[in-house]
C-alpha cells in the first residue's frame, strides 16, 4: 500500500515562512517524518510539492494508478481551485485535506474550502503533527476502520 503526501504552494518555504503561523519545521522534516510514520504503519509514502496548480493536478492524476490514497495540503489553492476539486473527484481515491493552521481562525476568505466536500476528511490546526494524524486516519480508512 502506498500513500501520496502532496503539498501545494509556498509550503517549500516552511521553517522560515511566517513561523508564528506555520512553525519552524521544514517541509523536508515533515516529509522525512511522513516516510518514517508510513513505515511504522506498514505503508510506503511518496512526498511531492509544487507551487504550480497544474503540476499538483498531474501528481493527483498519476496517483490514480499507483497510490491507495492521498494526503493533500493544497495551501491557498484550497480556497480557489475548482480544477483541484475536479481532479480529486476524477481520481476516485480517498483524499484527506490537511492544513498546518486552523483556517477557521484566520481570514474569512480561508474559511471556505472548495476541496473539503470531495475529501474523506479534514485535519487542520495541529501544525506538522497533522501529517502523521492524516496518515494514520487514511491508513485506517483504507483498512476499513470505521471508528
What is the structure about, briefly put?
The protein has a single domain (2-142), classed as 3-Layer(aba) Sandwich (Rossmann fold), CATH 3.40.50. With 147 residues, it is an alpha/beta fold.
Features:
single chain; 147 residues; alpha/beta; Rossmann fold; five-stranded parallel sheet; 5 strands; globular
In total, the number of domains comes to 1
Strand composition percent = 15-25%
- Please provide the ordered H/E string of secondary-structure elements: EHHEHEHEEH
Number of E strands: 5
Q: Average pLDDT value?
A: 95
CATH architecture tag: 3-Layer(aba) Sandwich
- Identify the CATH homologous superfamily: Dehydroquinase, class II
Give the strand order of the largest sheet, numbering strands 1, 2, ... along the chain. Answer: 2-1-3-4-5
Tell me the span between the first and last alpha carbons.
20 Å
Q: How many helix segments? A: 5
Amino acid at each position: 500500500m502506498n500513500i501520496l503526501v502532496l503539498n501545494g504552494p509556498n509550503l517549500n518555504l516552511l521553517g522560515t515562512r511566517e513561523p508564528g503561523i506555520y512553525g519552524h519545521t521544514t517541509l523536508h522534516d515533515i516529509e522525512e517524518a511522513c516516510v518514517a510514520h508510513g513505515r511504522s504503519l506498514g505503508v510506503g509514502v511518496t512526498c511531492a510539492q509544487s507551487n504550480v496548480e497544474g503540476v499538483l493536478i498531474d501528481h493527483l492524476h498519476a496517483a490514480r494508478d499507483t497510490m491507495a490514497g492521498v494526503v493533500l495540503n493544497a495551501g491557498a489553492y484550497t480556497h480557489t481551485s475548482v480544477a483541484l476539486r475536479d481532479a480529486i473527484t476524477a481520481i476516485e481515491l480517498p483524499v484527506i485535506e490537511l492544513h498546518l493552521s486552523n483556517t477557521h481562525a484566520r481570514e474569512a476568505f480561508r474559511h471556505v474550502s472548495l476541496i473539503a466536500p470531495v475529501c474523506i476528511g479534514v485535519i487542520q490546526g495541529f501544525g506538522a503533527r497533522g501529517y502523521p494524524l492524516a496518515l494514520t486516519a487514511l491508513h485506517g480508512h483504507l483498512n476499513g476502520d470505521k471508528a
